[in-house]
Design brief:
83 residues, mainly alpha, 78% helix
Length: 83
């Protein structure tokens, strides 16, 4: 079982993730071309993740962390269907 602090951190990430997901859905719906908007968002987001430096994570572990973050970001963008 996770500690209370770990559970609170996961709940916070879940809330933030949901808010961002819903905002992206709204923005995609407002775009004249939702698919193009989401494609550009995916491209730019993946690039930004690759530029990040995660303090407290060794350089040898950062590559794996970045790859996991990219996969999760791509999954989030891919799950948006503004129709």
């Amino acid at each position: 079982m996770a500690s209370q602090a770990a559970a609170d951190t996961l709940a916070e990430f879940a809330a933030i993730n949901t808010a961002i997901h819903r905002i992206l859905i709204h923005l995609a719906k407002q775009s004249p071309n939702p698919s193009a908007f989401l494609s550009k968002e995916l491209e730019c987001g993946l690039e930004e993740i690759g530029k990040s430096n995660y303090w407290g994570v060794s350089l040898s572990q950062q590559e794996g962390l970045i790859e996991t973050a990219r996969k999760r970001y791509a999954d989030m963008i891919g799950s948006i269907h503004p129709d």
